[in-house]
Specification:
Alpha-Beta Plaits; 3 domains; eight-stranded antiparallel sheet; globular
């Protein structure tokens, strides 16, 4: 195939905007949104519908068509596929010296609600159709022989203009007719990862929850990155101000939260606890509950084991399990010294926990019907697209601009819940969505509040104990937590 400069792809990235879409009827009229799908060409999608239970409908939505192909992207010296103009020009010169024809293209990370846009540059070689993927791979070998690192890229992943296709599963839970409840689950323990379907046993439906910590010890990677409340118990502290899905009985809403935990010794001395059910840092207090499912850190720290009434039943060197029915206040460094001084066996150590809704300024009541799942990025607020990528820790080209599988949660004007998955990383089958596109989809579905949950290979929707979407890993991935739709 004759190679030619790339004429589609990242150069179209500036077409992504934050324009508000008209409010669709959505669940407010118990009908699925009509009209055009909000992504790609203006065309009505095809859909199939299945009733799951009273008030719960499952839709499979297909839209768009495949026209994207493959290209080869040059990796910059820092290993990234984009960089400054100077770095891109230098990479392009190396490609030319190797006898290939490069194309330097802008990569525009769009402006979001809390961060400006930014322009980078990528260097690419060639354009091949889907069926010619193997020919593209040969160019990678040629470049490697010349000492140039590169990778194969499917243009549908770019985040630039595309025709799709898109493959969605949408679960709607009508607040007026649904008689079950919503819940969250971290499976058998906080530390352990499990599949969504394993956590969904006994549920009518479920989707994977928020992001989990892949940067901690391997045995602890089920730990949520952000807030988690299960049955009224705070199991992971919030990253202050990040978006979350708050579930109480059969109600759901999206808001931003902060948490605070403190302990007060019997002698009246009080101190703040920085973490809940995670690995402890230097000179840090962390609270461990029996849901932790692992030992406390063996860091020469101290553990105050307390019963349900706050009585200290044991003061021990750290590195042991949390006894059933108890909690452990762990301290390392100077925090351990505080425990040795103020946490005597037989004394009390009262733990105070608050979870505050930052939109209302009021604390949540930690009752057994309260569940909270932390989101990755806020998408829609008060009916308008509002992508809070920087506040929520995901303001990067990869997270904002690139397309990935997505798991989304939203609430309509009448309080109904929408759970949606958009499959991705499947060239010719489904391209996924970037953050702004995900927000556009949720607006189209009728959400006036919406958040992005964990995505990529974690994206999974389970209905009737079966995974109904197509996870991009080829099988269901073990994740940190899940959102459950329960029969009662």
């Amino acid at each position: 195939m004759t190679r030619r400069p790339l004429v589609v792809g990242l150069a179209m990235a500036t077409s992504l905007t934050l324009a508000a879409f008209p409010v669709s009827a959505g669940l407010d009229t118990t009908t699925f949104p009509g009209g055009s799908f909000p992504l790609g060409a203006a065309a009505a999608p095809t859909k199939t519908q299945k009733s799951v239970a009273p008030g719960i409908e499952l839709y499979n939505v297909l839209a768009g068509k495949s026209t994207d192909g493959y290209t080869v992207t040059i990796l910059m010296p820092n290993g990234r596929d984009h960089g400054t103009r100077e770095a891109a020009d230098a990479a392009a010169a190396a490609v030319e010296a190797a006898g290939e024809t490069p194309s330097v293209q802008p990569v525009v990370k769009p402006q979001v609600a809390d961060a400006p846009g930014k322009e980078y540059f990528a260097v690419r070689v060639g354009l091949w159709s889907l069926k010619d993927k193997d020919d593209a791979a040969k160019t990678i070998k040629t470049l490697k022989d010349a000492g140039i690192r590169s990778k194969l890229d499917y243009l549908g992943d770019d985040g630039a203009q595309t025709t799709g296709p898109w493959d969605l599963r949408v679960l709607t839970v009508d607040s007026r007719t649904f008689r079950g409840s919503f819940a969250a689950s971290l499976g058998t323990s906080v530390a352990k990862r499990e599949t969504t379907s394993a956590m969904a046993k006994g549920a009518l439906a479920a989707v994977n929850g928020g992001f989990f910590n892949i940067h901690t010890l391997p045995a602890l990677r089920g730990e949520p990155v952000g807030v988690s409340v299960v049955a009224g118990r705070l199991l992971s502290e919030a990253v202050p101000g990040r978006s979350a899905l708050v579930l109480k009985g059969r109600t759901a809403r999206v808001t931003e939260l902060k948490t605070a935990v403190s302990v007060t010794a019997q002698d009246g001395t009080r101190t703040d606890v920085k973490g809940v059910n995670r690995n402890a840092g230097t000179d840090e207090f962390v609270l461990y509950t029996e849901e932790w499912g692992a030992k406390t850190p063996a860091n020469d720290g101290a553990d105050a084991v307390i019963d349900a009434n706050g009585k200290i039943v044991s003061l021990r060197t750290s590195g042991a399990a949390v006894p059933a029915g108890h909690r452990v206040v762990h301290g390392s460094g100077v925090a351990a010294e505080w425990l040795w001084e103020h946490a005597w066996e037989g004394w009390t150590l009262q733990v105070t926990t608050t979870v505050t809704d930052l939109r209302t300024g009021k604390p949540l009541q930690l009752t057994p019907d309260l569940h909270v799942v932390g989101g990755g990025v806020g998408l829609v607020r008060n009916g308008r697209i509002r992508v809070t990528a920087k506040r929520d820790g995901h303001d990067s080209v990869n997270m904002v601009l690139r397309r990935h599988p997505r798991t989304l949660a939203g609430v309509t004007r009448n309080g109904s819940l929408i759970l949606a998955t958009i499959d991705g990383r499947k060239p010719g089958i489904s391209v996924g969505a970037n953050m702004i596109e995900a927000a556009q989809v949720m607006r189209w579905l009728g959400a006036v509040q919406a958040i992005n949950l964990d995505g990529g290979g974690s994206t999974a929707m389970v209905v009737g104990q079966k995974v109904v979407n197509q996870p991009s890993d080829g099988r269901e991935r073990a994740v940190g937590d899940a959102v459950l739709v329960m029969p009662s």
